[in-house]
Design brief:
11 helices; globular; six-stranded mixed beta sheet; two-stranded antiparallel ribbon; 318 residues
């Protein structure tokens, strides 16, 4: 996200905070003005060339119009031509046809395409009992979608949006959006190892949640805060994560090399309350509908044994 887009996001959030009572979204209204601008650009990318060609065609059509268009205020000054009206009719017909063509062009999908991949060869075995829980931290683009998908995974007991990779002092949305804090928008996943393994969470993460071949970006969002990273909390998680990345690269599971890094865990800092459960609370917002709801659908389709319909939500007051 560049400086202009970050400022747009901030102005949008301020407007949402002030005008929330009018639009019903409270602080959520306009929060992602910058992101939505990016999303709009991404979804219209495939029709940009068509639009340019259409504009050229319209200009050519306009060139066929009379040099002196009719002025309603001065009808006598520019009298309507009484002969050869065909160029004007052709121009109107061409313009209408081009407009219809542009409006019917499909928009490019911004959501990363889910990829069918093999499970990790090296993984923790399912625990014999639910006597304890484990925690994992993943970063893969905007935390709204990452959290939203993990909240639909069986065995996950909590998924919290937050920041990891930087210090406590810089763990805030405004400053992290600058891309210079070392933080990545991350999700802390607490899970029952008797119901789902760390390796299975990694499989969902690589297959459905994000594109691990994109460097410092995901979908319409760009910057180091949107990087692909795993923060292992112990040696076992590190071995499983590094082994799985190597396995996927060797098998050419993706069309490009994986850029996901296993980074040292320096702590996790929960994000502001208005970021929690965002996908569930705002499923019809443009950003969520375009970028994240397809990921939940892919989870259900590719991992029916891990999918649960009712998400496990965070108590935003925590």
């Amino acid at each position: 996200m560049n400086i202009g887009e970050r400022k747009g996001a901030r102005r949008g959030y301020e407007r949402g905070t002030k005008d929330g009572s009018e639009n019903g979204d409270g602080p959520h209204a306009g929060l992602h003005a910058g992101k939505l601008t990016n999303a709009a650009n991404a979804t219209s990318a495939t029709s940009a060339t068509n639009a340019a060609n259409a504009a050229n065609a319209v200009n050519l059509a306009n060139a066929a119009k009379p040099n002196h268009p009719i002025s309603p205020a001065h009808p006598a000054t520019h009298p309507r031509p009484t002969t050869n009206r065909r160029p004007l009719r052709i121009s109107i017909s061409i313009t209408a046809s081009l407009l219809t063509f542009l409006l019917t062009q499909p928009l490019a999908a911004s959501a990363e395409t889910a990829v069918v991949i093999a499970p990790p060869a090296l993984d923790e075995p399912l625990a014999a009992s639910t006597a304890h829980e484990e925690t994992a931290v993943f970063a893969g683009g905007c935390f709204w979608g990452v959290q939203g998908v993990f909240q639909h995974v069986r065995g996950v007991t909590k998924a919290v949006s937050g920041y990891s990779g930087g210090t406590r002092e810089t763990a805030g949305y405004e400053i992290v959006s600058g891309g210079e804090t070392g933080h990545a928008e991350s999700v802390q996943v607490t899970f029952d190892p008797a119901r789902v393994t760390y390796g299975q969470l990694l499989q969902v993460y690589f297959s459905v949640i994000h594109d691990p071949t994109e460097l410092n970006r995901q979908g319409p969002d760009s910057g180091t805060q949107y990087r692909s990273a795993v923060f292992p909390l112990n040696d076992t998680q590190r071995r499983v994560a590094q082994g799985y990345i190597a396995q996927l690269d060797r098998s050419h599971a993706f069309p490009a090399p994986i850029v996901t890094k296993t980074e040292p865990y320096r702590g996790f800092y929960p994000a502001e309350s208005y970021h929690q459960n965002y996908l569930t609370l705002h499923p019809d917002s443009a950003y969520i509908a375009i970028n994240d709801m397809p990921k939940v659908a892919s989870l259900k389709r590719l991992f029916p044994h891990l999918y649960r319909d009712k998400p496990v939500l965070v108590d935003a007051a925590q």
